[in-house]
Design brief:
With 210 residues, the protein is mainly alpha-helical. The chain contains nine helices and no strands.
Amino acid sequence: MDNNILLKWFQRQFSNPQLVILLLLLATLFAVVLLFGQMLGPVLIAIVLAYLMDTPIEQLKRQGMGHSFAMGLIYLLFLTFFIFLIVVLMPLLSRQVTDFLATVPAMVQAGREILTQLPESYPTLVSAEQLNEIVNTASRSMTEFAQQALSKSIGFIPGIITVLIYLVLVPMLVFFMLKDKRTLFAWFTSFLPQDRSLAEQVWHEVDLQI
């Protein structure tokens, strides 16, 4: 009995070809992102940025501005903000990290000076031998920490190369996606079924919410 009810529910829900097309599109999109997300990272980021920038471009066009001029203005603002992040914020963050690392030896030395005064101030609590053992243990720990930090910093090199690739590719991809939006959209929709009104309706609702 339960199997029959479940079968009827599936037949009733999936008898609509529009719903099947929508589910297939969502499943395909999810599979592409899951399997090729890392490889297509710059493309996916550029798609999101181009989509967000398309709204102000369309608003400027409705106010009488030409497409090329509106696109150039919005892209110039995006590029200015992008360069600002690279030129100003990233060096500032790097300088903060460098300054912190530069103060570490002084902090360690100050800590050692405080520890050396403990036997004189509190001879009943800690002896000179115990203090030497604590200092040696701390020195070994700091050496191991420095070695680990060095090995991890070398491991960051591939990540830095990836970031540099993103910094070059993403602005270029955004520009071409904005410039050739209609051509790219027509090419993408050529792979979709002709009867896709439900998918278009869902996309329109999502677009209004965003």
